[in-house]
Structures are given as structure tokens and as C-alpha cells.
What does this fold into?
Amino acid sequence: MPVYPGALATPQLPVVVVGSSRVPDDAILYSGLAPGLVGVWQLNVRVPMAVPPGSTTDVVVSMRSVPSNQPESGGVIRTVIAVK
It folds into this structure.
């Protein structure tokens, strides 16, 4: 499979929730293919100031009404980040 050499943004922005705060669309800096990596969807997002510091802050991304923590194939996936 060839690697796409540059950035290729998604046609629409996903819904991103960090902790209990929805990230505003203007804080989603990039959503699309990661340049030089096969099958990697890259998100560059500014974490809202309302998100309190913590070592396990949940992140959920929804694209076309499919949330990242409950994929169509079933099961539950938990994605977390550390916020300082």
C-alpha cells in the first residue's frame, strides 16, 4: 500500500470530547491522514481550559456518529491523555 506523501484532511470535522468538555471546532487544528504513515488518522486538538489536570483524562472522538470508545465492531475502548 503506498504512503500518501502529504496531509489529507477529512471532509468534515469529528466531534471531540476531552474529559467532559466538547472541543470547539475552531480548536480542532487538523483531522486527517498522518503524512508518511499508513492507516493513521491524526488529530491535532487544543485541550479546552475547562479540562482539569489529571493523569487519566478520557478522550472520545466521534466521526459520522460512530464514537471511538464503542466501535461498530462492538466492545469498549478507553483512550486517555494526561493533562497538566
Observations:
- The radius of gyration is 14 Å.
- Residues 8-83 form one domain.
- The mean pLDDT is 90.
